[in-house]
Amino acid sequence: MTLSAAIADEAASADALERLLEATRPGMTRVNAMILDRARSHVELVPEIARYLIDAGGKRLRPMLTIAASMLFGSAKGSEVNFAAAVEFLHNATLLHDDVVDESNMRRGRAAARMKWGNQASVLVGDFLLGQAFMMMVETSHIDALQVISKAATIIAEGEVFQLAKSRDLTATAADYDEVIGAKTATLFEAATEVGAMAGGADAAGRRALREYGRELGFAFQLVDDVLDYRGEAGRLGKNTGDDLREGKMTLPVILALKAASDAERQLIVDALGHEDAGPDKLLQVRAIFDRHDTLGQTIARAEEHGRRAREALRGLPASEMRTLLGDVAQFTVSRAY
Amino acid sequence: MTLSAAIADEAASADALERLLEATRPGMTRVNAMILDRARSHVELVPEIARYLIDAGGKRLRPMLTIAASMLFGSAKGSEVNFAAAVEFLHNATLLHDDVVDESNMRRGRAAARMKWGNQASVLVGDFLLGQAFMMMVETSHIDALQVISKAATIIAEGEVFQLAKSRDLTATAADYDEVIGAKTATLFEAATEVGAMAGGADAAGRRALREYGRELGFAFQLVDDVLDYRGEAGRLGKNTGDDLREGKMTLPVILALKAASDAERQLIVDALGHEDAGPDKLLQVRAIFDRHDTLGQTIARAEEHGRRAREALRGLPASEMRTLLGDVAQFTVSRAY
Questions:
Q1: Average pLDDT over chain B, rounded to whole?
Q2: How close does chain A come to B135, measured CA to CA in Å?
């Protein structure tokens, strides 16, 4: 895509998230009520930690996608609320465990839960949220949706283990990266939209379309996130710029850079990768190498391709405002990178 | 119970575990095959860690109880195998996370997984096992059993958080202790026998009887375990004697001792409780205090009461060899304390 085309698309999609928020508001009101309700526990520490994370909010993009997907097919009868809340709980459980695994200090613009309550409580409250997610699914008696969610939970965990195994592995390939983000990110987006479609009464083709849409959207989302980690400002995403570098995460920008780098450049990257004390100067040096080899640009190009595929996945469905909006959301996801 | 009565009962129940193993062998062969199969993953680290834990074995008491409960009602059609394997996976997931939370070094007589692969992998492989447990449940399309298991997973996590919150809390009461073990141990025993009964085609009364049997058995089991932690020899249970003391766990023997202790005794307990370097001399001092106030004896008396209730729960069911055997298992569970 040319820069001017990108700018035009960005204008068209700039308010996509606002419009998604608006379109899903009635459903999300019920989802948010359920989220608060199910974060309760007579064990004080549980709601305290769960709410700390939940109140920080995030965009609630995944449950919004579940609601939107259900609306696309028109005959949602209420199970979409449970599905959406379960998706958000599964996501939050993953975040709690991720922060323990990554030893992250920040999450959603404030101290990670583990910094306030310790790793132990973060692990256990994550388990609680996971259990509650399944309980909300079970309440709908929708065994096919349960299958989607339980499979997603398994694949996400597998992906996280794979990412851990590849941490600081200088031989990691773009294919490894695809496997990691396909499992840890795209799987949940895919599940979110697929169960939404199911709740909305989609036929097999509709379900398949939304599954593919969610999967491609998830890839685009994570690719852009991994670009922003090197380009954003601290606090902007509730993460610190350079976290991935310090944590030794083999994201695509670094994989592509290592492949193209001179010996001297390679050494610079290796010296910074996975070193907790890699400061702003190191980060700037690494970013200069990325710029020389255009690895952020190449990563964005991949995100654009996935965004395009996400929109394409919807093409076979009847035209509707919601279909257009979901297409714009895919575009917006990519345009965050600019 | 008098000592001689206890010895007589012990003789009657001594081989109960052997007989349970024998009676459930055909079912357990299928369960063990499923456990191995579902511990597989293309991500190498996953089966490596899962099998390390699974191969260490343990008694597989919980899945055996599921199979036994299903046999009691006679019309098991295969779902009991999935249920039993899911119960064991849920148990193993809990162990992996527990060891991280408790910072345990040992599990089932060897180094805890976290000592070999780190806390990070233990958290994530635990999540994987949890996901697989739900997938095995989902395969049976048995929504009521799924409800039992997902509720159990949630309550177990809540109980672990409560235990963490009460760690080294000198004001912890016997009621707090009951809440902790009711949630973290009895809930899984209860779920194991209840879903077994469901797989076997039990009616509501049968299901209720097995739920109650499992719950009481779980209480008895944990009470005895908490006695053995102060009395066993290192390695006997794959735990080190005195672990609970060093980890600051408020188990019943220590709660009762604190209540009865003189100021000097209290100070001795406080000095050892939750101190990683509390050595054999400290442990002996604490045990001497327990002996003076008979707190291990009182804990065993409670276990006996729960064992009695477990046997009583079965009383309304038709007499059968399996019913007798399950009663003997309850007796055996208590007699381990002698």
A1: 91
A2: 6
Q: Where are the domains of chain B?
A: 13-318
Q: Which has the higher per-residue pLDDT, A251 or B57?
A: A251
Interchain proximity A43–B162, CB inside 8 Å: yes
- Average of per-residue pLDDT across B19-36: 96
Q: Are B52 and B105 a contacting pair, CB within 8 Å?
A: no
Instruction: Classify domain B13-318 by CATH architecture.
Output: Orthogonal Bundle (1.10)
Amino acid identity at B96: L
CATH class of A18-70+77-331: mainly alpha
ipTM > 0.90 (yes/no) = yes
DSSP annotation string for A129-177: HHHHHHHHHHHTT-HHHHHHHHHHHHHHHHHHHHHHHHTT-TT--HHHH
Burial-class residue A37 by CB neighbours within 10 Å (0-12, 13-18, 19+).
Answer: exposed
CB of B145 within 8 Å of a chain A CB? The answer is no
Separation between Cα atoms, residue A262 and residue A222, nearest integer Å: 27
Name the residue among A202, A181, A201, A193 with its Cα closest to residue A149: A193
Report CB contact under 8 Å: B130, A130: yes
The tokens for B105 are: 């070094």
Position B235 pLDDT exceeds 90: no
pTM, full prediction: 0.93
The answer to whether the CB of B303 falls within 8 A of the CB of B334 is yes
